[in-house]
Design a protein that fits this description.
The chain has about 250 residues and is an all-alpha fold. It has 11 helices and no strands. It folds into 2 domains: about 55 residues, no CATH class; about 150 residues, no CATH class. About 30% of the residues are buried.
Amino acid sequence: MAGDLTGQSDRILSDGRALVRDNQSGGRHRRGPIGKGSAELRRGNLMTRIKLIAAALFTIVIAASAAGIALDGIGFTGVMVTFLAIVAAVFLFGNFPKVKVPRRADLTRTQDARQLVARTELWLEHQRPALPPPAVTLVDQIGVQLDALGLQLDGIDPAHPAAVETRKLVGEHLPEMVESYRRIPANMRREGGAGGSPDQQFVDSLGKISGEIDRVTRQLASGAIDDLAVRSRYLEYKYGEAMEPAGKED
């Protein structure tokens, strides 16, 4: 009994310290885009909303004008109806349509390099609230790296083995590692084990992914795509093994 109470107390203190760190770092619920690709998707969504608002306002004004001409004025009631219609249109299209967050399965079907980068960034942004603070920092860093990687992939034949394997790294291995971590119950993520806590294992694995993305980008930039094709064959084994101890905690 005493051991259980001590363990619970240590866990509460650990959670409290983590909460303090979260607050000191501004919390983990950052909402800004992590890269240019996701930012472009958000801008595209914003422009769609603006166009819908403009079209709705134009339609409302034309309809009110036509009613005024036909009825020789719309009166106070007509003015209020028009005003309320404008408010409703601005509110509706100011909030809809929402930015569509891709499903993880959709990432693997994306062949275009820029679209893959943008969608992966957007997907990662929506995972940040469930990640520990050090991982959030790494996700932000990976967003910048993905922008650079997308530029390099844009000039390579999508069918080239190097491009195929790199898309697997970004569209499969990275998202799968994040989902493997999220499948672990929240109350078990800070529990230590032989390989460290799931939190620490996840942060370490995410750091390896970040380093690999950087190396891949540099190799593509230097034209060493043949070396990259050989090297990338080991990615699935390397990163699948990295999260295996954490998955056993589930």
